[in-house]
Design brief:
single chain, mainly alpha
């Protein structure tokens, strides 16, 4: 039962990481004018931002202002990986 729960949490974590990477790539494409502001990419980018902002917002408030570079997605990925490691070790210890 615990392994199944861990696998579900791992899958959700993987989805979050993929969304963070997609958000980052689309943001770079917009920032460097590789693609124009087409409606489809804007709607995908906006949807991902709406999903991730409740999680990234508190991290952004805790971190110092680093200018144009936003390190909160990286911090979120590291936190999610730490949670996975701790959960896996707890499950293996039981």
């Amino acid at each position: 039962m615990l392994i199944t729960l861990y696998q579900i949490i791992e899958m959700i974590t993987s989805i979050f990481v993929m969304l963070i990477i997609i958000q980052f790539i689309i943001g770079l494409l917009f920032a460097f004018n590789v693609v124009g502001r087409n409606e489809f990419l804007m709607s995908v980018y906006d949807a991902i931002n709406r999903l991730l902002d409740p999680v990234l917002g508190p991290i952004r408030r805790l971190m110092p202002n680093t200018g144009a570079i936003d390190f909160s997605p990286l911090v979120l990925i590291i936190i999610l990986q730490i949670i996975l490691i701790v959960l896996r070790n707890i499950i293996l210890a039981v």
